[in-house]
Amino acid sequence: MCPFCNPTILECVFLESQNFLAIYNIAPVLPGHALVIPRDHITSFIDLNRQQRAEFLDITTHAVRILLKAFNTDAFDMSVQEKPEAGQTIEHLHLHIVPRVKGDLPDPGDWYPLIHKSDQMVMDDKSLKRLSKKDLQIIVKKLRDVAASPELRE
Ligand SMILES: [Zn+2]
């Protein structure tokens, strides 16, 4: 089953809109690593219609603000992989957001290979590097609390 269509994904949701969810990554490459996904199994970024594109950008911006505040930084990376040739391993559109802090990796560009590995961990239930259910709950609750603060709304 597609991991992003599995109902258990709802435990990771810290922000939602009509057609999209912002979720904490069960296998974060760095603290704060989150994903924005469509609720429906949409594979391609370029298949989004005009209304969905606007909504996608809107919830992504809101999610970035929440993550930056929760993880106390103003730096972040973002990425979408489309098609296997580009490194897409989960066939459900997902945009990675990774908050960054000075010195978090030996080189600032080192985050990218980790993203690819992270998708494989999401696919592999037996991987040991996934967050525990308890740690996930703590982070998601914190992000939901930040999301509820009024100054982040617009
Ligand atoms: Zn899916």
Topology:
Elements: E1 13-16, E2 20-24, E3 34-38, H1 50-70, E4 75-80, E5 95-100, H2 111-123, H3 133-147
The structure holds zinc ion (ZN).
Question: Which labels suit this protein?
Answer:
binds zinc ion, 5 strands, alpha+beta, 3 helices, single chain, HIT family, subunit A, 154 residues
Query: What is the domain total for the residues?
Result: 1
Mean pLDDT: 92
**Uncertain stretches of 5 or more adjacent residues:** none
Indicate the percent of residues in helices.
Answer: 25-40%
Q: What is the count of β-strands?
A: 5
Radius of gyration: 15 Å
Write the CATH fold name: HIT family, subunit A
Quaternary structure of the protein:
single chain
Give me the CATH architecture, please. Answer: 2-Layer Sandwich
Please give the order of strands in the largest beta sheet. 1-2-3-5-4
Q: Strand-residue fraction? A: 15-25%
User: Ends: how far apart?
Assistant: 35 Å
Main sheet makeup = 5 strands, antiparallel
Specify the CATH homologous superfamily: HIT-like
Shape: globular
- SSE class: alpha+beta
In the CATH scheme, the class would be Alpha Beta
Please give the count of helices.
Answer: 3
Secondary-structure element order, N to C: EEEHEEHH
Bound small molecules, deduplicated: zinc ion
Kindly summarize this structure in a few lines.
This protein has 154 residues and is an alpha+beta fold. The protein has three helices and five strands; from the N terminus they run βββαββαα.
